[in-house]
Design a protein that fits this description.
This protein is an alpha+beta fold. It has 12 helices and 11 strands. It is about 30% helix and about 15% strand. The strands form 4 sheets. It has a 4-stranded mixed beta sheet with strand order 4-7-10-11. A 3-stranded mixed beta sheet has the order 1-3-2. Strands 5-6 form a two-stranded antiparallel sheet. InterPro entries: T6SS_TssG-like. It comes from Burkholderia plantarii.
Length: about 375
């Protein structure tokens, strides 16, 4: 690298040199800039790059010894350049003074050149620091830990740790689509594009699917008592239809294993009085028991695939509508599942009729794909049904 330094971008070269030195030291102690006093026009920005010998900082109570630990040693590089230097062929100093400094340096009287190098050092170090702040490629940290990543997270709305926890994706995964996520105008194309990239499958969106909403008790009609003005507040029934209540996302075709990772966690009866032992039930029976008043329902921790899907959907929809998910599973990838099988509420391999298990049929009546549907509610508690 040092022998062919002219083939490198100067900022990337400085980044690589800084990476090989003690990062606890300031840049000015690791990179030493000196003016190239040659009268020749420079062929490259850096005339020479020379490694400095390892030095040991002397302690306050005496000179350093040879047995100092490697962490205490200071390794650096000396860079000779004509750019951003006071006295050089491209510098601002008038030519007579530059020639005077050149002649003194030839006579080994380097006091003037050393004085100018104080300003040369400061200018070149500041130049690199400013460039590094504005160029993500000059940051040695992992992409998810850089300052630019923090700024992008603030634009997306995930800078706070509690907000970021709602989208269980590594920061590196959504940095490339931060521009789409930061757009607060919710568009169908953004939802399809982001989910397609995250899931690695085709995504189709159907808007305005609609759903029934239960009316609040205070909004229902009670003749002679409440909301009984005909044509004004009187509403027949306990539900109202909202055409904008839901969206439908069709994902696929996916294989059976990918589908199981995207399924929501199955409700499991809590252990205790009135709860039915899971060992005596299949997963289908566990779901039925979970709906009974005697068995309190608990939800196991969501699977990573479903947590990612649910978090992205809530972020992209901004809790404006519930989302119906339809996974199209390739029929050849569905394995045969014998009965009986004990319930495993936290295991994606447990059987759920219509989602991860189906009744066997003749090959003539099978389709190329099997649809699996579930709902991600975003406007209330954020659970899934």
């Amino acid at each position: 690298m040092l022998r062919q330094h002219e083939d490198f971008n100067v900022f990337q070269l400085m980044r690589l040199m800084l990476r090989d030195t003690n990062r606890r030291l300031p840049i000015g102690r690791r990179l030493r800039f000196r003016a190239d006093l040659s009268a020749a026009f420079p062929a490259s920005e850096f005339a020479s790059v020379t490694p400095l010998p390892a030095l040991v900082d002397e302690p306050a109570n005496g000179p350093a010894n040879d047995a100092a630990p490697a962490e205490a040693r200071e390794q650096g590089f000396e860079i000779s350049t004509a750019n951003f230097c006071v006295a050089s062929v491209t510098g601002p100093l008038p030519e007579p003074f530059t020639e005077w400094a050149r002649e003194l340096a030839a006579l080994r009287a380097t006091a003037m050149a050393d004085f100018f190098d104080i300003f040369n050092q400061r200018a070149n170090v500041l130049r690199f620091q400013l460039k590094r702040e504005l160029t993500p490629g000059l940051d040695d940290a992992s992409p998810g830990q850089t300052a630019m990543a923090q700024r992008l997270a603030a634009l997306v709305g995930l800078d706070d740790a509690k907000l970021a926890a709602q989208v269980p994706l590594p920061k590196r995964a959504w940095l490339g689509i931060a521009g789409l996520l930061a757009n607060r105008r919710k568009q169908a194309s953004t939802l399809v594009e982001v989910l397609g990239l995250a899931l690695g499958a085709n995504v189709r969106l159907t808007e305005n699917v609609g759903a029934w909403h239960e009316l609040d008790e205070r909004d229902r009609c009670a003749l002679g008592r409440n909301n009984h003005r005909l044509g004004q507040t009187c509403v027949v029934g306990r539900r109202v239809w909202d055409q904008q209540a839901r969206l439908r996302l069709e994902i696929g075709v996916v294989d059976y294993a990918a589908m199981c990772r995207l399924l929501p966690p199955a409700p499991v009866p809590a252990a205790g009085a009135g709860a039915v032992p899971l060992d005596s039930l299949g997963a289908i029976g566990a779901l039925a028991a979970a709906g009974s008043p005697a068995a309190p329902v608990t939800l196991p921790p969501p699977q990573p695939g479903y947590a990612m899907l649910s978090g992205l959907v809530k972020l992209l929809v901004d809790r404006l509508a519930d989302v119906e998910i339809v996974l199209h599973v390739a029929d050849p990838s569905v394995p045969p599942t014998p009965l009986p099988q004990p319930a495993r509420g936290t295991d994606t391999s447990s059987m759920r009729l219509g989602q991860s298990a189906w009744l066997a049929g003749t090959p003539a009546h099978r389709h190329a794909t099997r649809p699996v549907s579930f709902l991600i509610t975003t406007r209330h508690s954020g659970g899934a049904a």
